[in-house]
Fold this protein.
Amino acid sequence: MIEIPYIEGDGIGPEIFNAMKKVIDFAFEKTYNDKIKWIELLAGQKALNTTGELLPQNTIEAIKRYKTAIKGPLMTPVGSGYRSLNVTLRQVLDLYACIRPVKYVPGVPSPLKNPEKVDIIVFRENTEDVYAGIEWEAGSKEAERTREYLKEKFGISLREDTGIGLKPISKFASQRIVKKAVEYALKNNRKKITIVHKGNIMKYTEGAFRKWAYEIIEEKLKDEIDGKIEINDIITDNMFQQIILHPENYDVIVTTNLNGDYLSDATAALIGGIGLTAGVNMSDKVAVFEPVHGTAPDIAGKGLANPTAMILAGSMLLEYLGFGEAQEVIIAALKRVLESGKVTKDLALLMGREKYLSTGEFSEKILEAIEKDTV
Ligand code: NAP
């Protein structure tokens, strides 16, 4: 018996969690003749209703203890209210690397002519940048003081009604994510790493990220990667057109937090959207797996959610725990179901099909495919 701690998530979280759990349980039992004990950890609305807190300390301590977890999406209101629970989790657990593999699954509708060329892994720095949460509302005491300080010390004038945010990028955080990407590329036989930055404009943050990336590669990693991995860099805006025009030129991408956030969704769109992409947020000690998409409140509770990304997150977790065989079983079954066109509404619409399966029916199809090796 293995134990897997989980956070169900808000919105479509419970639906996609249940679908994922069924598939993971079934594949695990069939492959290893063993069971999974799921340990629920509270966060988000469910935690608020039960404990009065959105992110109880118990949950954080449990993730530290178990060292791995899987989570559904958690809701963050725009503009006001509490800080993002996802960002908080990443910061308190120092989950500095957000790693998102984006690989085409045959049969899934894609806006590209040759989507099979997409096989990209995005490494996003997860703790700094404008995500650090250092920002002040226009007119607040803090914004006023910062404005005055900038005027007095540096002669910089900002309009009175300016909201202010900081973009911290450190050498330490930049180099540890680059090191992580290089280690991954070496271990997984990947051939190219592209550093993505907007250093032409933000010279001492994004430009410094690029500089520090090359520096650590040159000073500490050169011998290991020589002849094995090609390193290059590209400015973010160009990257967005290049991944659409020539996705085959990209392999491992390493970048800052905001670039990484945008690029993850954009690369996901190339293979059918965020309903099909999962990732992991990890430190050197802890790994938290999740789908890339959010809580999709417009379809929550209607049985319309596509659980694929959540199932992929579960299968990545199994692989991480050393159960790669079960991951292969799941991916093979998932591919067969997606290829068959028996899919949830989001994909059916893209495929021009009128009929579609509910979240639960889709997961049943995957169980069938695992059981019979067919759909
Ligand atoms: P979103 O929840 O990802 O949803 C955007 C749209 O994508 C949905 O309205 C839905 O489109 C479609 N979609 C997403 N996941 C789907 C799935 N599994 N199956 C089918 N369709 C899916 O993004 P959002 O509306 O910007 O964010 C909503 C909330 O989620 C926010 O509070 C945000 O902060 C949070 N969020 C959390 C995470 C996380 O926990 N890691 C990540 C991103 C966002 P249709 O309109 O076509 O149905």
Remarks:
- Residues 13-32 form the longest helix (20 residues).
- The first strand starts at residue 2 and ends at 7.
- Residues 12, 16, 73-76, 86, 274-275, 290, 293-299, 305-306, 309, 346 surround NAP (CB under 6 Å).
